[in-house]
Write a structure and sequence with these properties.
Length: 204
Amino acid sequence: IHAIGDLANRELLNAFERLRAYERDNHKTPLPHRIEHLQLIDPRDIPRLAELGITASLQPIHATSDMEMADTYWGERTRYAYAPKYQLEKGARVVFGSDAPVEDPNPWLGIHAAVTRRRRDGSPGPEGWHPEGRLSVGEALHAFSAAPGEVSGRGSLQGKLCPGCWADLIVLETDPFACDGEVLAEIQPLGTMLNGEWVWREFD
């Protein structure tokens, strides 16, 4: 279910809480629901996603696209806006996407936004917008890869490189764990493999 503001997210979490009670009282298997966007949340509601087993599905590039608008209309509440860090700290599952075609589908732009909390031109400054919300490269990559595989029920096949999984992968020109955060937005692939077969590559 899509929810943006703090009241919308609270009402949705209240509904999910009632649903979880119904599932428990009627011995039904809890379904893997998620909240899409979760752009603003009241700090009192932050732990509830983990408690209810609800996935937080966010698009990290929205933080840098929307920061002026968010500051204008949400003021001090923006500390808890576009902030998957808080969900991860409470143990909730976090998945990332691009929100294409609203935003560019290139995942490296989202990874750059999640890690730096800055736009590609460096604004709003070296520390980024609400820098307490910055993620590590590993956290951002996991939210774009392994976590969606787990949420879709394909975690044993998809989202990571290990025996038994589909060989879906890209070869990169730059190591994202070794480069400066600003470089993340510029990373380009050198090859793409789907289920063990090269579908495109720039090397022999």
